[in-house]
Structures are given as C-alpha cells and as structure tokens.
Design goal:
single chain; 65% helix; 6-stranded mixed β-sheet; 3 domains; ABC transporter transmembrane region fold
C-alpha cells in the first residue's frame, strides 16, 4: 500500500513539473509560506497585548509593525500562490486529459473494454477525472495546512510545552477521518458497477439507434425503472459509507473539542497564578482556536490528496495493464509479404473473468494467398478467432504464427498496419464521407486529390460508390444527424465501412467478419465474389482474405472452408470436398439450402 502511494505521489509531482515547471515551483513555495506566516499573527497579538498592558509605547509600536508585516506577507504570498496554483491546475488538467486519451488509444486489445474490473476503474476515472486535475493543487494546499499547523504548535510550545498535547488530540480526528475515508472509498468502489449499469440503461433509453425498439415495445418505463433501481442500489451503498464516515468524524471532533476547552482553561489559570502573561493567554486562545481549524483543514487537505493518490493509482493500474499487454516474446517484424501463411497451433482461449473455454485446442492453417471462409453455428468461436488474429487478445494456450514467427512477438501496431477488416458491428463515423472512409489509410488523409481518388477506388471495390453518388455534396457530405449532416440507412453505413476496409490495397490479412448483415443475400454474394476476385489478383504478395458468414451460398466460393464447432476446427476443405464428406458442413448447408427452396 505504501509503495503504491509513494509511486502515485511521484507520479503527481512528475506530471505537474512536466506540465509547467516554473509555475509548479512558485506554487509549491509561495502558498505554503503564506499559510506558515498566519500563526505569527497570534504572536503579534501577544506582543501587542503585553506592551499595551505594560504601557510600553515603543514595544506596542514594534508589535504593531510585526503584526502588519506578517499580515502583508501572508496575504501577498497566498495571493501569488493561489494564482499560481489555479494556473497549474489548468496545465495539469490538460496533461491528464492527453494522458487518458493516449492510454485508451494505446491499449492494444479489447480486454480493458470488456473486463468488468477494468471497466469499473475506467468508470471511476471518468467520474473522478476532475480530481486528478486538482491533484497538485491539493498537494500544495495540504503542505500549506500542515506547515501552518506545525508553526502554530511551535508557538504554543513557547508558552507551555504541555500544550503540544493538542497535537495528539488533533491527530485523533485525523486518524478517525482516514478510517472513515477508507470506508467511503470502498463504498464508492462497490457502487461503481451499479452506476455503470445505470449509465448504460440511460444510454439505451436515449440513444437514437434504440429509439424505435424502445417505443414499439414500450420499454421507456421499464428502462426508467431499472435505471432508478440501479441508481438506488449505488446510492444505498454510498450512503452506508457516508454514514460510517460521518460517525467516525464526529467522534474525533468531540474528543478534540474537549481537549481544546481544557487547554484554554489551563492557560488562563496559569496567567491568573502569575506563571504566564496576558499576552500568552491571548496568543493561546487565538492559536488553540486556530489549531482546531488547522487540524480540520490539514486533515481535509491530506485526505483529499490521498483521494488524488487513489485515483492516480487507478490510472497507473490501467497503464500497467497497457504495458503488460504490450510485452512480447522475442521481437519480430511484420513480414512484407506472406510466403507460408498463418497457422493456429492448439490455440486455447477464455475471456478474462470467465471459466468457459471459447477455443479449446483450435488448430488450422490459412495458406498464403488463399481466400478462406470460417463457418460455424452461433457461439462456436468465430469472432474470437478474428479477435486473436487481429491481436485484440492473446491466446491462453498454444500460439498463432505468421510465416512461422509467433504473432505475439510482432509489435501489434506494426501487424495491424498490415491488416484490414470490416465487422458486423461497424463504426458509424459522423465525419465527411472522404474522412469516414479515408481513415482506413490514415497516411492519405492530407493527400488532397489523391485521397479522393483512393476513396473512390475503395468504395467501388466495396460496391459502395452508389452511396456517394446519391449524396448532396458527394465526398464532402457531412454524415450523421448529430452535426446536422445526412443520415444513412444501415446498408449504406455498412458499405462505407466496407470501403474503409478496402483502403489498404495490399493487406496481409483482410478480415470480413459478417460485414454484410445489413445487405440482402444477392448483394452479399456479388460483393464477396468481387472481393474474392480482388484477393486472387493479389496472390503475388500472399495476402489472405478471411470471410466469416452465416450464408453458405457465399462461402462456397472460398478456396478453403474451415468449420468451427465448440471451439475446434472439425472440418476443412473446399465446398466440394466438404459436401462429399457428408459431415457438419454438409448438414448445415443442406439445412440452409432447404430454407431457400
């Protein structure tokens, strides 16, 4: 625990210093010094009281000068320090936003977006991101409050060392506050899942894509009910933590209040006995009263900063996951062309947090230059194989090789630059058409007329140029109603997604994972036939095209068909070979064929 906090502390300091070195140093010095000067006002009041009662005009004048000097220094230092801190907060906020965006972009696979525990941390980071931006400021404020408390205690000790017992009494509410804060933190962590569920339900109720089904099935009230139930569950969990925190905090402050009253009474008795001056009484009353506020503020600032360290720890945990996900065995470059192909060797895989193996010893060979179809019933593991081939996950057992080299050893960014894909759950990018398609080859986005030519080529290959021809401004048309653009049908959006997949002319692996679900069977057949022709024309560099489809009339054109059942490849061969075998493929083909007769 201490090691994690020290690491988080170093992270906060490093982030602030890199964001604005001079502002960070100014903030770290000025404001704490301003806080530390404040208790000397009590010292000035002591000297002024004693001088006035002794009719010492020069002493009173000197005391007034000290009082004025201290007050001016305090206000000046705190004023400059606060402005520096606010400036630093803005710089740090930008630094953390860039860091968060970079982290989410760098995570190579899908685990962080599908694992519940990592999703909970992401949820807490989203909710608490503002806390991170004030992290360095809270550190400065905490340092200032602690320094001010220490100065006050030193001055109290000059009157009577026994007054230092106030520190011990002051630590009691701080200790109980820390315990209460931990209970509150556990409650917030436990409430993260129902809060995330509530947000998901709210999104489902408000998302345009779900609007038709919400209304036709009269789901609005049910979604509202479940949304409120999830919020109530989260609220009850957090309320238990807040109540426990409040009880412990009240107990600590009652104990300190009793100690404070006793300390003041004791110093007044000392003065009445001639063992302390009236100025000592004034300073003690002022400082002892201030100590109550100083302990409270110091406790609050320290606990707030501990909260910053906790949230920073979540960020570091995700960064550790990202770094771990990037670890590779012996590094190997992605090949420029395929000579042998891709092999799955006894691949086993289960999704994180689950016990069921989706792939249980899956072995297959995708020959270089081949058009391969992957078929199987729902839940057989087809999309999982796609995710593994594209580096979204790593196998739990076995391995995937590319021309004999372990795929895990190829840098994931480098491998993905040599791949292209279109998915059933494609993205609807609300951008101008040329960019919505052109992002399939980012290096061309600033290529002007060449970009337009390449987008047209890709869309024609994908059978989607007719979409552009029907748009009011062609490739310049803004897509999506969110920005006042043109909305498309599901099939039109899908054609643009297929166009993105065709932007890379010579991918080593082109994956089409049921990307034509919104198209009719005849259009899908014609489209896959066109893809197969393009793929066979690229055999010189060994690129593999992998189709995943439920329509057997489409996959029969593939050079090789792989039949997946319960996490294993159970059959492989051409359509004619598999039909002659009379196995699972032939059975599924006949079942589907009868449905069309």
């Amino acid at each position: 625990m201490k090691r994690r906090r020290l690491r988080a502390l170093a992270d906060v300091i490093r982030t602030a210093y890199r964001a604005a070195p001079l502002v960070f140093v100014a903030s770290l010095i000025m404001e704490p010094l301003g806080f530390a000067a404040e208790p000397f006002i009590g010292f000035g009041m002591k000297r002024l009281t004693d001088a006035a009662l002794a009719h010492d005009s020069l002493g009173a004048l000197a005391a007034a000068g000290v009082f004025t000097l201290v007050l001016t220094a305090m206000l000046g230092l705190q004023g400059v320090g606060v402005r520096s801190r606010l400036t630093l907060d803005e710089k740090v906020k930008l630094a953390y936003e860039e860091r968060m965006a970079g982290l989410l972009a760098r995570i190579p696979g899908l685990e962080a977006f599908e694992r519940p525990d990592l999703q909970d941390r992401l949820q807490l980071l989203r909710e608490k991101q503002a806390i991170l931006s004030h992290g360095t400021g809270m550190m400065v404020v905490a340092a200032g409050h602690v320094l001010r408390l220490a100065t006050a205690l030193v001055l109290l000790a000059s009157v009577q060392p026994l007054l230092l017992l106030l520190l011990g009494l002051g630590m009691l509410p701080s200790w109980l506050e820390a315990r209460g804060q931990r209970l509150l933190q556990r409650a917030e962590e436990a409430a993260a899942e129902p809060r995330r569920r509530a947000q998901s339900l709210l999104h489902a109720a408000a998302a345009p894509a779900a609007a038709k089904e919400v209304r036709i099935f009269s789901l609005a009230e049910e979604l509202r009910r479940q949304f409120l139930r999830s919020l109530e569950e989260a609220g009850r969990t957090e309320d238990r933590g807040r109540r426990a925190h409040a009880r412990l905090s009240l107990l600590g402050w009652l104990a300190f209040g009793a100690g404070y009253a006793g300390a003041v009474a004791w110093v007044v008795w000392q003065a009445a006995s001639g063992r302390a001056t009236p100025g000592d009484v004034v300073m003690t009353v002022y400082l002892a009263n201030s100590v109550a506020g100083h302990v409270s503020n110091a406790s609050w600032a320290v606990q707030s900063f501990m909260e910053v360290l906790r949230i920073t720890g979540y960020l570091e945990h995700l960064e550790d996951h990202e770094a771990e996900a990037r670890q590779r065995p012996a590094p190997a470059p992605a090949p420029q062309r395929l000579r042998e192909g891709i092999r799955l060797e006894d691949v086993r895989f289960r999704y994180p947090g689950t016990e069921t193996e989706v792939l249980a010893g899956c072995s297959a060979e995708l020959p270089a230059g081949a058009v391969v179809a992957l078929v199987g019933e729902n839940g057989a593991g087809k999309s999982t194989i796609v995710k593994l081939l594209l580096g979204m996950y790593r196998p739990d057992g076995g391995r995937i090789t590319v021309d004999g080299a372990d795929l895990a050893g190829i840098p994931v960014e480098e491998w993905r630059r040599r791949c292209a894909a279109a998915f059933q759950d494609f993205a609807r990018l609300e951008l101008p058409v040329r960019e919505a398609v052109g992002v399939g080859a980012l290096e061309l986005l600033t290529a002007g007329e060449r970009l337009d030519a390449e987008v047209e080529r890709a869309l024609r290959a994908a059978g989607g140029w007719d979409v552009v021809e029907a748009l009011p401004e062609g490739l310049a048309t803004m897509l999506g109603r969110t920005w006042g653009g043109t909305d498309l049908s599901g099939g039109q959006w899908q054609k643009l997604a297929l166009g993105r997949a065709m932007m890379r002319e010579e991918p080593l692996l082109l994956v089409l994972d049921e990307p034509t679900a919104s198209l009719d069977a005849e259009t899908e057949y014609a489209l896959f036939q066109r893809y197969a022709g393009i793929a066979r024309g690229r055999r010189a560099f060994g690129g593999i095209t992998l189709f995943v489809s439920h329509r057997f009339s489409t996959v029969r054109m593939a050079d090789l068909i792989l039949v997946l059942d319960r996490g294993r490849i159970v059959e492989s061969g051409s359509h004619a070979q598999l039909m002659a075998m009379g196995g699972l493929y032939a059975e599924l083909f006949e079942l589907q064929a009868r449905a069309y007769r």
